[in-house]
Amino acid sequence: RRIAVLASGRGSNLQALLDAIAGGTLDAEIVGVFSDRPGARALDLARAAGVAAVACRPRDFATRAAYDEHLFSRIDEVQPDLIVCAGYMRLLGELQVDAHRGRMINIHPSLLPAFKGLHTHEQALAAGARVHGSSVHYVTAELDGGPVIAQARVPVLDGDDAATLAARVLQREHPLLVAATRLLCDGRVTLGAHGVCLDGQLL
Ligand code: GRF
């Protein structure tokens, strides 16, 4: 299976996928890493692994639609079976989202549908949540609103701040993303007309 990864920053989830592939626990190939930030560490990690790294700067385009169209034309060039958004910090164009329905996933650091958007760890602490975590979901036009594939839970501990909570979540995000990606690559998880299916059975 051919995977394209979209990432804006640190790239630790990308690295988890690269490590799983190198270690033989994920039968896939990362065929390109795409970023809206030329300085993103994710691009360095891609190059270090011998993977094509592509930066497209939104400010080089007149409109958001033109940027999205260009970005996805570059992504489509590498003919991915699956697109993984791993810390991609922009809204995706609706046209492109619809064109890749069922073939694009995102990892979001909360137990969706709770705490969509930014600053999820701060949101969880402010709400007094005792359980927090991360979700892998299909991308749809609704921000962080697509069908959830899998989640990892962590406790919120007394004395946590956003940094300690984020670190606890991140540790669980890496295996979660690898496991979810494996389910998709193996064709076990699919997006049907009525939602997520496992082995052909609607969940
Ligand atoms: C992760 O917490 C992911 O859930 C969120 O952005 C962060 C990306 O981290 N969407 P990294 O760039 O993979 O290290």
UniProtKB/TrEMBL annotation:
InterPro entries: Formyl_transf_N, Formyl_transf_N_sf, GART, GART_AS. (6R)-10-formyltetrahydrofolate binds at R64, M89, R90, L91, L92, N106. It catalyses: N(1)-(5-phospho-beta-D-ribosyl)glycinamide + (6R)-10-formyltetrahydrofolate = N(2)-formyl-N(1)-(5-phospho-beta-D-ribosyl)glycinamide + (6S)-5,6,7,8-tetrahydrofolate + H(+). Residues 2-180 form the Formyl transferase N-terminal domain. The record marks D144 as: Raises pKa of active site His. Pathway: Purine metabolism; IMP biosynthesis via de novo pathway; N(2)-formyl-N(1)-(5-phospho-D-ribosyl)glycinamide from N(1)-(5-phospho-D-ribosyl)glycinamide (10-formyl THF route): step 1/1. GO terms for molecular function: phosphoribosylglycinamide formyltransferase activity. Keywords: Purine biosynthesis, Transferase. It comes from the Bacteria. The keyword Transferase applies. PROSITE patterns: GART. N(1)-(5-phospho-beta-D-ribosyl)glycinamide binds at G11, S12, N13. It holds the Pfam family Formyl_trans_N. The active site is at H108. Its EC number is 2.1.2.2. The keyword Metal-binding does not apply. Catalyzes the transfer of a formyl group from 10-formyltetrahydrofolate to 5-phospho-ribosyl-glycinamide (GAR), producing 5-phospho-ribosyl-N-formylglycinamide (FGAR) and tetrahydrofolate. Belongs to the GART family. This is Phosphoribosylglycinamide formyltransferase.
